[in-house]
Design brief:
Length: 190
């Protein structure tokens, strides 16, 4: 099945927050209040846990409207069926210190969170979102992309995509830390 993929735009803030707010996060209830701002929120873990869903929803709206939060939405007709947080790695403050030693001075994008509607999981939505992100950041002149998926059967850890999905799209494994694989895609190679 083919999905329509489009970049998140400033006017999509309410569509995005409505989509995120409507999902059943029964497998990971704490995600229901995240609104995909965790990796862009430079607070400590205790402060993060104390934040409310409404605070995170408003943060997401502000970040989208200001262009700080970037990514892609997948549609089946007019229905949003998936999201990937794909951004300049420096905008993802929780991972930027991990990426800097690997990236050096290169301009690097990262895919961090995939949120796929339960009815569409396992139907290729994440793969389509990844392909769109790769094409977009290659076109934007980025040097590379990085991903850090977990190798786990735990449903709570599948939000970063699968290692295989990245390898199928040309990424190379460059490091492994426990269950976390660090994968790299050179966007400047032909």
């Amino acid at each position: 099945m083919s999905y329509r993929i489009k970049p998140l735009e400033k006017h999509d803030a309410s569509l995005f927050t409505t989509y995120m707010g409507s999902l059943d996060f029964g497998h990971a209830p704490e995600w229901s209040t995240c609104y995909c701002v965790f990796y862009q929120t430079p607070c400590d873990e205790k402060t993060w846990i104390e934040r409310t869903g409404e605070t995170n929803r408003l943060t997401a709206i502000g970040n989208i409207e200001s262009g700080v939060m970037r990514g892609f939405l997948a549609y089946d007709g007019d229905k949003i069926v998936g999201w990937v947080n794909a951004n300049d790695a420096t905008a993802l403050t929780r991972i930027s210190s991990l990426v800097k030693p690997i990236a050096g001075e290169k301009r690097v994008a990262a895919t961090m969170c995939y949120v796929i509607h339960p009815e569409y999981r396992g139907k290729g939505v994440a793969r389509e979102l990844l392909k769109a992100a790769i094409a977009y950041y290659r076109n934007e002149g980025f040097d590379a992309m990085i991903a850090m998926p977990f190798s786990s059967e735990n449903a709570q850890k599948k939000y970063r995509g699968s290692v295989n999905m990245y390898l199928e799209n040309g990424y190379q494994l460059i490091e492994k830390h426990g269950e976390t694989s660090v994968l790299w895609l050179d966007l400047q190679e032909a």
